[in-house]
Amino acid sequence: MMKSLFQNRVVSPKGIVAALIVAGMLSMAAPLFAQPADAAAPAPLTIDTNEDVYFRNIPGASKYAVIITGAAASDEIQARFRQWSMALHDLLSRDYGYSADTITLLSDDGTAFTTEGAEPNFRIDGSSRREDIESALTTLSEQTNAGDQVMVIMIGHGSRSDTGIEEDSKFNIVGPDVTGREFARLLDAFNEQDLVVINTTSASYEFSAALSAPGRVILSATRSAAERYDPMFTAYLIDALDNRQGDRDKNGRVSVLEAYTYASQSVLGWYRDQGRLPTERAVLDDNGDAVFSLEPASGAGDGGLAEIAYVDVPSAGQQKSSPEAQQLFAEMQDLERSVFLLRGQKANYLEAEYWDRLETLLVELARKTGRYNELP
To answer: Does 2 map to a domain?
Structure first.
């Protein structure tokens, strides 16, 4: 279910400021004075950041997910990988607005997850062999439009390069493995789409670094090739999405940054509770420099894009159906997004200018939310 940050809430500007402070969107309170209701609408603000061109959630844009489950070293591990794949598929389709047409599941040798004689599993679209991966991504690139969002989730084993070249690190699949630079070339077809890659494999860092590019959010379950034991990151990623437990700001949505933060902190908590040294540390890159951050955050080197990249798909059932309402809802989302971007750029402004810009955004958001709530 997708909700605007202020939908179904008090729409006075002071109420919105309070909601933002409670949600953790503002680090300190500041006097914001609402303009009179009949005042002229302020001119649109342009946020001074390159992030502004990505993850815009434009009206009519679609979201797609590709889950790739690689080869497993044992039956026990295979069962675990399959369970995680199924859980992610079911969560995305049940709670996040995806459908059979927008989720692609490629699993080891492509066989169903059922016992002999049972009905084939409808979720599986093919194997994780190289040819099926190439075919699925090529087909998807031809179906998607500019501004659509594509999320690729990789589950399985990874291995470091045997050539000494980092980009040749591998994702272990059925048949010949695929290297980081080979996979990067497949993703180049999505140069007009917003791209999220969540690599949950062992030794995933070097493979993930090969995928880094502007406009992409890349998560790696490990921060070095030496972290070669099977990570637990996927299990806690599922927890972050389940019942939206990762929704830290309580706006009814889970961003990629929130999912990352929940999962990475939960992994470290598990090792701490077990009295063990962590053998995995997740990292994230979203500024295209292939330098990953352990603790990405708004306003930091990494985290700005991940914060505005949401997992969920807009749900028409949760919105009003008139063209005016649909347009207002899209404008409300865009204003919410601008608030996040501005907050991340706070250090770039004089304090008075920052609060003036924030006030302008919040007052305009209050107006549009009020108009939206008044529509039938």
So the answer is: no
Mean pLDDT by 10 residues, the chain (376 residues): 39 40 38 39 49 76 95 91 95 94 92 54 88 97 95 95 85 95 96 96 94 96 88 96 94 93 96 92 95 88 91 67 76 79 82 88 87 83
- H/E run at residue 154: strand 149-155
- Indicate whether 79 and 168 sit together in one domain: yes
Distance of CA 196 to the CA centre of its chain: 6
* Number of alpha carbons in the 13 Å side-chain half-sphere of residue 9: 21
Give the residue from 269, 299, 298, 263 showing the smallest Cα distance to 283.
263
Whole-number Å distance between alpha carbons of 9 and 12: 9
The Cα 27–Cα 14 span in angstroms is 16
3-state SS assignment for residue 158 = strand
- Residue 328 sits in which domain range? 13-55+315-374
Q: What are phi and psi of 154, to 5 degrees?
A: -110, 130
Do you know the residue count of the chain? 376
Residue appearing with tokens 């979203």: 286
186 lies in the same domain as 140: yes
Shared domain for 321 and 303, answered yes or no, is no
Tell me whether residue 74 is exposed, middle or buried, using C-beta atoms within 10 angstroms of its C-beta: 0 to 12, 13 to 18, 19 or more: exposed
Looking at the fold, whether 243 and 301 belong to one and the same domain comes out as: yes
DSSP code string of 36-85: PTTSPPPPPP--SSGGGGS----TT--EEEEEEE---SSHHHHHHHHHHH
Which candidate, 102, 217, 210, places its Cα nearest to that of 161? 210
**Can you give the C-alpha Rg of the chain in angstroms?**
21
Q: What is the pTM of this model?
A: 0.79
- Residue 319: the pLDDT is 62
In this structure, the answer to whether residues 319 and 303 fall within a common structural domain is no
How far does CA 268 lie from the centroid of its chain? 21
**51 and 173 share a domain?**
no
Count: domains in the chain: 2
CATH number at residue 153: 3.40.50.1460
Residue 254 CB contacts under 8 Å (≥ 6 apart), including other chains: 240, 241, 244, 246, 247, 310, 311, 312
Q: 100 and 20 share a domain?
A: no
Could you give the CA distance from residue 57 to residue 162 in angstroms, rounded to a whole number?
A: 40
Q: One-letter amino acid identity for 56? A: R
